[in-house]
Write a structure and sequence with these properties.
The chain has a 6-stranded parallel beta sheet with strand order 1-8-5-4-2-3, with helices on both faces. Strands 6-7 form a two-stranded antiparallel ribbon. Helices cover about 50% and strands about 10% of the residues. It has about 350 residues and is of the alpha/beta class. The longest helix has 23 residues. It folds into 2 domains: about 150 residues, Rossmann fold (3-Layer(aba) Sandwich); about 190 residues, Up-down Bundle (Dehydroquinate synthase-like, alpha domain). Helix 4 links the parallel strand 4 and strand 5. The chain is globular, with a radius of gyration of 20 Å. The protein is built from 13 helices and 8 strands. Bound molecules: nicotinamide-adenine-dinucleotide. Nicotinamide-adenine-dinucleotide binds next to helix 2, helix 4, strand 6, helix 5 and helix 9.
């Protein structure tokens, strides 16, 4: 066994059908008596927020359905003002990474506790990472103050996620697990969680695509999302997350779709340098060890997920700029970052070229 450091972060998890019904008890444990329910503005966000507010009765001060992706600074200023003016004593998020992102930005300034009811598989609820976008640039930071104190994972809240979003959000979570396996600070615990996380999605996503109301499959996927979020919040990521951050931040590509397209190529790029991770991924995918990246590509395609950057709105002429940006500042990656090879990776991803077999020495 190699030397390792494992640092766990406290959080209280209530998992399972009907977990939402525990919300009154759970927010009182956090000392909330005048809570704000944060969601996105769409029909689904409003419905979910209304459901939570109804369960809370007098413990809910109001609903704040104004979360948008990437947390613009203007929305943070407005919401912090609202929170202070209304003497809010706690934040409840219902929805995906967007409401959680806004709550984290509010908590950064107010130190209010957060209870999260995640309804996608993005995993932000398990991390101390916040992000705020100002003048088109997303600034991120790490502060344990913003990490939700309690998380209620209720599979029933996820049956409305459309099949396509379920797939892309699921692969977003698989990406956290994959990079955790070859993380600079990977350790035996996170590696166990990561392999189990990938397995949960491999098992559940085909069933969800067939029947989005399959509660047992939804439960498996949400379990995978918890594991993916846990490893994302515990160990550092690498090339894949850097590429997705660049493509999302500078070229405005959609978050989960970008993760879905890029992941097989990031695996292929690192494969020769990450034999243990490749073994884990191949066990989880039940695939030939030499064809891990291609097997994941096939799985995504068979589930109706996007497999080319072209199909999600990326322009071929931006490949050069994206490669430059993603290689400009040094960061950890198991294989050295080589600009030529990154350009090739982006070109293959642009056209959706199935990744080839990994050289035999893995
Ligand atoms: P999101 O919260 O914007 O949700 C995506 C879409 O799904 C929205 O239109 C939303 O209304 C809809 N939706 C959510 N739940 C639904 C449900 N149950 N049924 C039907 N529709 C539903 O996006 P996301 O993919 O969950 O998260 C992405 C954001 O989170 C990005 O801004 C990303 O940077 C951030 N993120 C942050 C971290 C972190 O650690 N800080 C981790 C992962 C993601």
């Amino acid at each position: 066994m190699k030397r390792f450091l494992y640092e766990s972060q406290p959080s209280r998890i209530v998992f399972g059908d009907g977990a939402i019904k525990e919300i009154g008890k759970e927010i009182q444990l956090l000392g909330m008596k005048n809570a704000l329910v944060i969601s996105t503005l769409g029909k689904n966000g409003m419905e979910l927020a209304g459901k939570v507010a109804a369960l809370l009765g007098d413990l809910c001060q109001s609903i704040y359905p104004k979360a948008i992706q990437h947390v613009p600074i203007e929305s943070v200023i407005e919401s912090v003002e609202y929170v202070k003016k209304n003497q809010i004593d706690g934040l409840i998020t219902v929805g995906g990474g967007s409401p959680i992102g806004l709550a984290k930005a509010i908590a950064l300034e107010t130190e209010l506790p957060i209870l999260a009811l995640p309804t996608t598989y993005a995993g932000s609820e398990m991390t101390p990472v916040w992000g705020i976008t100002e003048n088109g640039v997303k600034k991120t930071g790490n502060n344990v103050i913003v990490k939700p104190k309690t998380i209620l994972y209720d599979p029933e809240l996820t049956t409305t996620i459309p099949a396509k979003l379920s797939v892309t959000s699921g692969v977003n979570s698989i990406a956290h697990c994959v990079e955790a396996l070859y993380s600079q600070n990977a350790n035996p615990i996170t590696s166990l969680l990561a392999e189990e996380g990938i397995k949960s999605f491999v098992k559940s996503l085909p069933k969800i695509v067939e029947n989005p109301n399959d509660l047992s499959a939804r439960s498996d996927a949400l379990y995978g999302a918890w594991l993916g979020g846990t490893v994302l919040g515990t160990v550092g990521m690498a090339l894949h997350h850097k590429l997705c951050h660049t493509l999302g931040g500078t070229f405005k590509l959609p978050h989960a779709e970008t993760h879905t397209v890029v992941l097989p190529y990031a695996i292929a790029y690192n494969a020769e340098y990450t034999p243990k991770a490749i073994q884990s991924i191949s066990r989880a995918l039940n695939s030939d060890i030499q064809d891990v990246a291609g097997t994941l590509f096939d799985l995504i395609q068979s589930l109706g997920g996007p497999v080319s950057l072209e199909s999600i709105g990326f322009n071929e002429e931006d490949i050069e700029k994206a490669a430059d940006l993603a290689t400009k500042n040094p960061y950890y990656n198991p294989r050295p970052i080589e600009i030529e090879a990154i350009r090739d990776l982006l070109e293959d991803a642009f056209y959706g070229k199935r990744p080839g077999p990994i050289p035999k020495r893995v």
